[in-house]
Amino acid sequence: MNFPTLSNIRAAHERIQPFIHRTPVLTSSAINEIAGCKIFFKCENFQKVGAFKARGAANAVLKLSPEQKSKGVATHSSGNHAAALARAASVAGIPSYIVMPSNAPEIKKKAVRGYGGEIVECEPTLQARETTLQEVVARTGATFIPPFDFWDVVEGQATCALELLEAQPDLDVVMAPVGGGGLLAGTALAVHNLNPKIEVIAGEPTGADDAFRSFQAGEILPNEKTQTIADGLLTTVGRLPFAVIQEHVDSILLATDPQIVDAMRILFERMKLVVEPSGAVPLAALLANIERFAGKRIGIIISGGNVDLGKLPF
After folding, report:
1. Do 212 and 300 sit in the same domain of this protein?
2. pLDDT tens for residues 136-161?
3. What residues make up the domain containing 273?
4. pLDDT grade for 77, boundaries at 50, 70 and 90
5. CATH number, domain with residue 122
6. Phi, psi torsion values for 101, nearest 5 degrees
7. How many structural domains is the chain composed of?
8. Structure confidence by residue, pLDDT tens digits, 283-304
9. Least enclosed by CB within 10 Å: which of 106, 117, 133, 267?
10. Which sequence positions are flagged as catalytic?
């Protein structure tokens, strides 16, 4: 399988530059003391649409042919990819059709509408989402942009670690959360190409641990059921990302929901950062395995900050 190269990732970074923020890399001496290591947080909670997803969606939309652009783009998502694709389409001046389950949070629907996306609601099952998406594509001729199982999206997500290593090249470890695997695969590709000596480690919730189990087994083992506060990581890992993860990720560590909530709280209190549960998972996994990271320099990608402030878990 041919993975995106460093020149593909650099080209993606150049392409999406006008459409994204170069997010800051922040540190906290208080958190370093708690963790017993030096952590550099790449704050994608400050990204457009509040999450790293803006990168992959922008890259995928900008790579479309003029004919494809004229018919717009479509996807199914109840989360950050929905808003990211609607925004990328809006910036490109093309239509977007977003299939969302009827129980998707109102805040997510509002974001999609705010970016000019046309929402098509369906029953809250994967089968209903996929069937409805097929109908939308057949009706509109729009191009389906998957949330993670697509190289153009992975290339875009890889630009996050590219920026992190430009800012902080001398890291021992880079950590990212894993759900569908687009961010983790992109991170692993960027890190491997820039400095293969740096370890890549993922954080995953115990209540949706398919990537952890799949990584151990060497084949994709989907989640039978999921139960975690980290709602952005409920998806089973994708085929393309998993191929990269098998080759270039060193390990996947788990965190429980109470550990994730504690990590969120630390980031809120110590750094005044609004971080969604999924974004706190790598820190939670680090703190759950503190001896493993003692004295090291760790880059952590905080994947997003789209949290419903009326439902904070503390």
Report:
1. yes
2. 999 999 999 999 999 999 999 999 99
3. 6-52+150-311
4. confident
5. 3.40.50.1100
6. -65, 150
7. 2
8. 999 999 999 999 999 999 999 9
9. 106
10. 53, 303
- Give the position of tokens 């110590």: 270
Q: Is residue 1 part of a domain?
A: no
Look-up: residue for tokens 């630009």?
Answer: 159
Q: Which amino acid is at 73?
A: V
pLDDT at 216: 96
Q: Provide the whole-model pTM.
A: 0.95
Locate 263 and state its tokens. Answer: 């990590």
**CA 178 → CA 17, 117, 124, 204, distances in Å?**
24, 26, 22, 6
Q: What are phi and psi of 189, to 5 degrees?
A: -65, -45
Please state, in angstroms and rounded to a whole number, the distance separating the CA atoms of residues 209 and 207. Answer: 6
- Tens of pLDDT, residue by residue over 15-54, are 999 999 999 999 999 999 999 999 999 999 999 999 999 9
- Cα 253 versus chain centre, distance: 17
pLDDT given for residue 104 in this prediction: 80
Taking a C-beta distance cutoff of 8 angstroms, is the pair 44, 303 a contact? Answer: yes
For residue range 171-219, what is the model confidence (pLDDT) as tens digits? Answer: 999 999 999 999 999 999 999 999 999 999 999 999 999 999 999 999 9
